[in-house]
Specification:
The chain has about 90 residues and is mostly helical. The chain has one domain (about 1-85). The protein is about 85% helix and about 0% strand. It contains 5 helices and no strands. It has helices at about 1-5, 5-20, 20-35, 45-75, 80-85. Helix 2 packs across helix 3 (about 20-35), helix 2 (about 5-20) packs across helix 4 (about 45-75) and helix 3 (about 20-35) runs antiparallel to helix 4. The longest helix has about 35 residues, at about 45-75.
Length: about 90
């Protein structure tokens, strides 16, 4: 579990450097590749490695983007979001 959570700071740095959209797309594509590779696993140990560890680690990239991307958008477009919230 600690290994999966260690991908969070890496994902945050990548979000700040290259942007939310690129990190989210890359994380989901890489996770999808590992999930597809888990179908070809010959035993349960390889399946745990590909599906749980590798695929789960790359899903963290999407989760971090979902959290930090929303906060970043609201902080940049604060006036627009406040207007949209209180508009009747």
């Amino acid at each position: 579990m600690l290994y999966l959570l260690s991908a969070g700071p890496v994902a945050s740095v990548l979000v700040n450097r290259i942007g939310c959209r690129v990190v989210s797309i890359a994380g989901s594509l890489i996770a999808g590749v590992f999930f597809a590779l888990s179908l070809l696993s010959p035993n349960i140990d390889v399946m745990i490695l590909t599906y749980g560890v590798m695929g789960g680690r790359d899903c963290i990239f999407v989760i971090v983007v979902a959290g930090s991307g929303n906060c970043y958008y609201v902080s940049v477009n604060e006036i627009v979001s406040i207007y949209a919230h209180f508009r009747k």
